[in-house]
Amino acid sequence: MKRSRTSSGKSTVFASGLPCKRASATSAFDVRCWVLDVQRTLAIGPLALTGIIFAASLLLTSCSTPPPPVLTPIGAAVPAAAPTNAAAPVTPLPEGPIRITVMDAILQGLENNRALRVQRLGPALRRTFEQEREGVFDPVFSAQLSRQASKAEQPSGSGTGLTNSDVTTVSGSVGLSKTFATGTKVSLDSTTSLKDSSLYADEFDTTRGGVSVTQSLLRGGRWSANLASLRQARLDTLSSEYELRGYAEALVARIESTYWDYALAQRQIEIVTDSLKLAEQQLADTRERIAIGKTAQVELSAAEAEVAARQADLINARSALDQVRLHFLALLNPPGTNTFQREVALLEQPATPEARLDDVAAHVGVARRMRPDLNQARLAARRGTLEVVKTRNGVLPKLDLFINLGSSGYADSFGRSANRANGDFYDAEAGVALEYPLGNNDAEARNERARLGADQAAETLANMEQLVEVDVRSAYVEVQRAREEVTAVGVLVRRRQDAWRAETEKFGVNKSTTLLVAQAQRDLLAAQIQLERAVADHLKSFISLYRLEGSLLDRRAISAPGRDPAMP
Questions:
Q1: In this predicted model, which residue has the larger pLDDT, 217 or 27?
Q2: Mean pLDDT value across residues 346-351
Q3: Contact 466, 479 (CB under 8 A)
Q4: Does residue 485 share a domain with residue 364?
Q5: Confidence band (pLDDT; 50, 70, 90) for 71?
Q6: CATH number at residue 351
Q7: What is the pLDDT of residue 3?
Q8: Same structural domain for residues 429 and 448?
Q9: CA-angle at 53, arms to 47 and 56, nearest 5°
Q10: Distant-in-sequence, close-in-space partners of 532: CB < 8 Å, separation ≥ 6
Q11: Of the given ranges (281-295, 384-398, 480-494), which has the lowest mean pLDDT?
């Protein structure tokens, strides 16, 4: 099939399209006869030869697109480097009050949380773009079958008049083509045409087989540029895996922190309830002392005010507990009906953690390897580099080398024409085609934008690395502060207890007032709540540190995609 180069903006530098009969071996340039020599040497027909060329091209370029990385879904086995105390499989929560430990709460949240279900779909969606980019290199099969009939007048063979002609033509073709990452496009095609004319006694059949190879020399001729979009799609999938991991870590941190907030709210109700009982006992004692004349009537107002204050505190504490319970249930999203009406019974209570910190530099090093958003920033920088490769390819002129080889046979039947196609008659075409837009402003602008975007991504990565280190160091300081606060507030509680006990004893011997006893009670209440909050904050400070360094899932023995660091 002869190749035409007449479209706007293209120029044919060299082309040859003459049919080739066996020519002299001394021809200066004769691709057609070189093909004939190869065919005769191998003792095969031209159709078989074109098939061998196509198969060889497939074999040589079968590794043009590297396989995508294997990604671990949430819930798979924990890698060997992760903690080995993996949690047991998730057991559905029974109906009724929810009795739950911290680890059970984490697993239930990961299994049932609606927001996480939405996030889990992200990587699967991104993989469809990989498949779409890989489709560029899929082989394309084509086939066509047509029938054409015509009836016309034309000059007779003797030239003395007109004659009628009835012509019926049945044509069919099949083809297979493939584009490779090397910038090579190979096409294999076969066509046949059966022509029946009233002007001739016999039918006339034409069969042709051919191969066409086009190789891009400049634009589109580099593996790196042709695979850039596919590699970007794979980076996007990896980025979505890191995004999913980051969301899962944030969810685990929220569940665990809310668990301790709920425990704190429950403990606060217990403390306020005990304080209310003390206030009511103090009110009863004050009334009794007034009745026997040991205390003035004015002392009654302070005692009643203290009881009212403790009752208000209890109302607020119960409301806070209900608020935390609703948030906790939303995170767990337990199956069943009346989700938000279920009660929660915690099986673990806050206690000062026994974990000890490593050197801060070690935690910073972990964050540089495992922090999901930092790994996303690294992938964004790599993606920007690939975009520069793509746009730089677009700046180049389009220069293609093409070769078309074919063989035709003519006979009065399909079988004979196919056999004659294996004879000594060929058609061949070879040449180069050039295309280049003058000015090329569009490609230049895209390349400059990609270059600036890559520089911006690199700067963003450097800034992100600094911010991550600040986050980790700040969280490290907070853990130390929280631990010291627990110790200090523990001493404060003991001193407030001593002060309240002293005021109570003094009140019993008329050496103190109801107001001073109430003040001592308030100070003790505040110190007790502060101690419980300090213990919960200490626990949550570890959670925050592990989340900010990206190791929270591993420390909880939970596997998720995105564990391996992205290489810069």
A1: 217
A2: 91
A3: no
A4: yes
A5: very low
A6: 1.20.1600.10
A7: 36
A8: no
A9: 140
A10: 264, 267, 268, 271, 350
A11: 281-295
* 241 & 318 share domain: yes
- Rounded CA-CA distance 457/227 in Å is 21
Torsion, Cα 277 282 286 292, to 10 degrees, reads 90
Selection from 513, 527, 82, 453 nearest residue 268 by Cα: 527
Look up residue 86 and give its DSSP letter: P
Residue-wise DSSP of 144-200: EEEEEEEEEEEE-TTSSSEEEEEEEEEEEEEEEEEE-TTSEEEEEEEEEEEEEETTS
pLDDT of residue 170: 87
DSSP code of residue 340: G
* 346 and 408 belong to one structural domain: no
- Write out the DSSP string of 235-289: HHHHHHHHHHHHHHHHHHHHHHHHHHHHHHHHHHHHHHHHHHHHHHHHHHHHHHH
DSSP state of 70: P
Residue 348 host element (H or E):
none
Domain interval for residue 182: 1-61+140-148+164-216+401-435
pLDDT over threshold 80, residue 121: yes
Type of residue numbered 431: G
The tokens describing 317, both together, are: 């504490």
The CA distance from 37 to 16, in Å, is: 19
Q: Which one, of 191, 193, 192, 182, lies nearest residue 211 by Cα?
A: 191
| Average pLDDT for the chain | 81
pTM: 0.74
Tell me how far CA of residue 372 lies from CA of 81, 235, 237, in angstroms.
18, 14, 13
- Of the pLDDT bands very low, low, confident and very high (cuts 50, 70, 90), residue 392 is very high
